Amino acid sequence: MNKCDQCIVRQLSSLKALNKDEVVKLANSKTTYKIKKGDAIFEEGEVTNGVFCIKDGVGKLSKLSANGKDQIVKLVQAGELLGQRSMISNEPANLSAKAVADMEVCFIPKSEILHFFNNNNQFSMNLMQSVCEDLKESENDKIALVQKTVKQRLAETLLHLHDTFGENEDKTLKVQLTREELAGIIGTATESCIRLLSDFNKLDLIELVGKKIMLKNIKALKKMAE
Amino acid sequence: MNKCDQCIVRQLSSLKALNKDEVVKLANSKTTYKIKKGDAIFEEGEVTNGVFCIKDGVGKLSKLSANGKDQIVKLVQAGELLGQRSMISNEPANLSAKAVADMEVCFIPKSEILHFFNNNNQFSMNLMQSVCEDLKESENDKIALVQKTVKQRLAETLLHLHDTFGENEDKTLKVQLTREELAGIIGTATESCIRLLSDFNKLDLIELVGKKIMLKNIKALKKMAE
DNA sequence: AATATAATATGATAATTATCATAACTGGAA
DNA sequence: TTCCAGTTATGATAATTATCATATTATATT
């Protein structure tokens, strides 16, 4: 009985195309790590030489700007692979990957992935599609950044977080981001983000439960985001 | 003697990995089109069922917003492939492709590309790397949109156009974009773009030769863009 | 060449968003 | 508990950018 076989990453990512033998090979070459909230999996400019499977937790891909702000490019969750792009491009990481919630990840060496890529057409197609999906999302984000106001982007992002990560028993968003991180996703100043959350609260679109956020009027948020 | 063999796209794109037999197959399945400046190669939402090789000219990938503005995601030139992403993702095009200068393109059916993808590891790796390159660029653009001012983005874009497309004998930029298109690339209002070009002109960073633009102080533009 | 149409230019103003300042709250460490 | 550091909150103001109005210039069409 090998551990990769039942792993959520095996079920959700490109790795689902691997056959029994390949999964065994995978299990033998992987290394498992635990990453504490706030810690980095890899930093911008580092050569990673492989990909990371996210078994548990939530991570963010971000880039630090000259003025010290951290622009978040993407949030990643259990089941996803990390570091595919720089591995394929043979380049140092363009972004840093840090844990937003405690994470458990496995590292798979590049040689292993390339072997699968060259010998398993379904795997290479899956990997390709996953990068294409990222590209589409990135392009759409880019367009939203230009064509939408900060208010619209906040509404959109709250809905997206709700869709992607779900809610706790108390109906608050499951991913717990700081206001600064949220601002980093929508691309605005932390104060602006806080201010708009206050506004949304007053308009009964959301409710602020301490630092947590509960979506109260999803319909109105959708209308605002469109 | 077959025509694809000497084609610039064959030399520059993922297609460089194809062997003689594959190029013959390619030549037999392709269709050639001429696209007039301003006309579309494909529109957002269309199912393309293949990729387009750009033999000559310049194109733009863009998305129309609700308020009627055309946000340009990427410019493409001779030697590049178009429509890879939606073909791989099995989705209608996310963006429209239109000619910025008269173009000559060849259409390669999806079945052909998939056959190469599954049978030629170097080709699939090249294709993958090309999508990864697009992803990296898109992510960096996204960050620039948030972290840089319109002025910085204009400087950056002018330099990028200069690098990528070169200059005419009179030193003006070779790609001739309207101010509206330029605004669509940097993500701002046309008037703002025009105003800043005026400012740059007064500061002797550029010179406006009718509708054409000549970069006069590249060093200063670089400093401004940083 | 004359006219129409579109592109470029510039001014005035409004809206959006960032920045700086400071206060209130929160969660953890001693 | 009490204090401290970090986060959240809000006000005041400045900077950036969009919008609307209107010239001016270029390009195309008859």
Automatic annotation (TrEMBL), chains A, B:
Extent of the signal sequence: none
SUPFAM superfamilies cross-referenced by the UniProt entry: cAMP-binding domain-like, Winged helix' DNA-binding domain
Keywords assigned: DNA-binding, Transcription, Transcription regulation
Pfam families on file: cNMP_binding, HTH_Crp_2
Residue span(s) of domain Cyclic nucleotide-binding: 14-134
SMART domains cross-referenced by the UniProt entry: cNMP, HTH_CRP
Taxonomic superkingdom: Bacteria
Domain HTH crp-type: 148-219
CDD domains (alphabetical): CAP_ED
InterPro entries: cNMP-bd_dom, cNMP-bd_dom_sf, Env_Response_Regulators, HTH_CRP, RmlC-like_jellyroll, WH-like_DNA-bd_sf, WH_DNA-bd_sf
Name used for this protein in its record: Crp/Fnr family transcriptional regulator
Organism listed in the record: Flavobacterium psychroterrae
